[in-house]
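[job 0412] stage=complex_fold ligand=pyridoxal-5'-phosphate status=START
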Amino acid sequence: MSRYWSKLVEGLSPYVPGEQPKIDNLVKLNTNENPYGPSPKVIEAIQNELGDQLRLYPDPVSLSLRQTIANYYDIQLEQVFVGNGSDEVLAHLFNALLKHDKPILFPDISYSFYPVYCKLYGIEFKAVPLADDFSLNVNDYIQDNGGIIFPNPNAPTGQLLALKEIESLLQQNTDSVVVIDEAYIDFGGESAVKLIDKYPNLLVTQTLSKSRSLAGLRVGIGMGHIDLIEALVRVKDSFNSYPMDRLASVGAIAAFQDKDYFNETCNKVIQERDRLSGALTELGFEVQPSAANFVFARHEKLDAAELAQSLREQKVIVRHFKQARIEQYLRITIGTPEQNNCLLEALSAIVKSKN
Ligand SMILES: *Cc1c(COP(=O)(O)O)cnc(C)c1O
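[job 0412] stage=complex_fold status=DONE, emitting structure tokens
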């Protein structure tokens, strides 16, 4: 603390991202990055953009990128917002669309950035408990609220909610914005984007960090009714006129254009998710069904924090949350077959040594 700090800063409790350790030969399965690199066409596009034009500001409205995304989803340009990672899109939408008198609702087990934004912007929230099996019942959200947000599939559980459930929620909740955070939708879910024409209070966010292997480029998307997008643009233009730099824009465009590479890498991750889930089950884990690029699992006998520590000693890092209800779970990002084998070998040795 410092006497120079504002009251706001004194009260903040920032989000703690998964670590990015500088250790050689690390098997890094802790932050849901894609184990495959970005499309070679993304690299080429970025290389082509490296030149004299970097002295010029980028397009403040990111027209080409937004048009590319609009074409991809068959929606209007005016229904697309882009930001510096979906975290930035989320920050803006908390400020622009979720800050009202009533508390907003999100699951008790969910993306832990949501309560951080609430604190930053002074938004009241109510955590709605997931069922014992971590399933989300949309009827629990039919109550007075200033807005609703949850990831689909949920994080860190990986559980997917069917689109008809989301539609049922939208039919019953018409007085506030419903945000579906689709950070992991490409690994087996159906996007709610197709509902935005029908429900003016639906905002869908996505990221290029997971399924498009571009966590390092920082590109996020918001899609919804033009009035919702206009609200985001107002906040964005009061904050940073140029959140999308030239490299991020051309890279993101190329990522959307290379559908073959996208499909191929997503399918590889999905295949490995199935294999890893099976192998973990054989090692004594109870594995949650996942539609994401990670699995959420707990061992029948071994303590999760100790497991994470033992794995770490073998240069395999996974994510462990010290949070009620899930402290015995590990969230494990799906790696390449080789990385997953390293994890399985390490786990198998740990399980044997403790028996
Ligand atoms: C990874 C993640 C994000 C943030 O993605 P960025 O675009 O990298 O900021 C948002 N929501 C959820 C649920 C995530 O897991």
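The two ends are 47 Å apart (CA to CA).
[job 0412] exit 0
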